[in-house]
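Can't paste images in this forum, so I'm doing it all in text. The chain is below; anyone willing to post the predicted structure tokens underneath?
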Amino acid sequence: MSSAHSRSSVDPVARALDAAVARVLDSVIGVEAANPVILIDGQSGAGKTTLARRIVERWPVQGRVQSVALDSLYPGWDGLEAGVEYARGAILMPHARGLIGVWHRWDWVEGARAEASAVDPSLPLIVEGSGLLTPATARLGDVRVWLESPAPERRRRGIARDGETYEPHWNRWAAQEEAHIVRDDPTAHATLVLAVP
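Text version of the structure:
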């Protein structure tokens, strides 16, 4: 038995994420498409990025899977809603129409868009980030995930991940996430609602 498997069998977060990966991949297989789109939403620290990475690692079909994190798109600390709209227009809509999508990374230091990346519509696509599941984006995703996680644990993980950079902005960002939940009701648009301790 590998040490990674041993750790995941003991760690409740790792165990929950492993179960989440299995549920998502079962749903992907059920879609029966060569280029399914997976949308992963949840509040900061819920495990979205880790889930996306593990889905890519365990993808059930040979070939490349594209993954885009909204952290690369949000235009600053007040940009949750704008980042989601940017992803919808630059990535999700072109993919749905069979067109190459082009998006520009947000440079948080310079406060401006930077280098461009392309999204191939013939390939599977995972997009993950807070605020992602809205009435406008839901119709563009085949598998739509909402990750639930307790606020204290989310904060602990988020600050551990990003440290002092994030801590002064935590409440400011959390307020935008709460507004998204009230406005967009992401669980109503999710095909899977999954819990992470």
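The chain is about 45% helix and 20% strand. Helices lie at 3-10, 12-31, 48-57, 80-96, 135-138, 151-162, 170-184, 186-189.
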